[in-house]
Write a structure and sequence with these properties.
single chain; mainly alpha
Length: about 170
């Protein structure tokens, strides 16, 4: 296993250590030699950069909401699979619906959502909203539209994994 350990160290550990060392320096393109500043870059991020703190708070909230939704939906799917009556009747359908998002690449899912579901003119979401006489939904406008759309994609992509883990338990 020595070659594998060496490869993991060279590909994973060494770049992390090098990046950490670089983060302790200040480098300006017009003044090439880097100067060591210690943890001043981290202190500047935490105490003087409000955009970073907003992004960090948004990321934490997004992760908590996504994880909570994935757990609830995953538990519901695992419960359906564990129920003998439902499993006998619909096991093939449920297993297919679970495995499709699990095996499709995230890039394909995001492009599919962008073109088939969220498109302002031809998307299914706006089509059904127009049928219900509700205003259209543009994923690319507004501060909360894009995060909600990405949250839906995240839940659809990651819930099958949670459901499989919970079903195995």
């Amino acid at each position: 296993i020595f070659p594998t350990v060496v490869l993991i160290v060279l590909v994973g550990v060494v770049p992390c250590i090098y990046t950490f060392i670089l983060s302790l320096q200040e480098y300006e393109l017009i003044k090439p030699p880097a100067t060591f500043v210690g943890f001043a870059n981290y202190a500047d991020l935490l105490f003087h950069n409000s955009r970073y703190l907003r992004a960090l708070a948004f990321t934490v909230i997004f992760a908590l909401v996504a994880t909570t939704l994935e757990l609830f939906v995953g538990f519901f799917i695992a419960y359906l699979l564990a129920d003998k009556e439902v499993s006998e009747r619909y096991s093939a359908v449920i297993r297919t619906l679970i495995m499709v998002p699990f095996v499709v690449a995230p890039v394909v899912v995001s492009y599919t959502f962008k073109t088939l579901i969220y498109d302002q003119t031809f998307g299914y979401l706006n089509y059904f909203l127009r049928i219900l006489h509700l205003p259209g939904f543009d994923i690319f406008q507004g501060a909360w539209n894009a995060p909600i759309g990405i949250l839906v994609m995240e839940v659809i992509l990651r819930t099958p994994f949670i459901a499989i883990i919970l079903y195995a338990g």
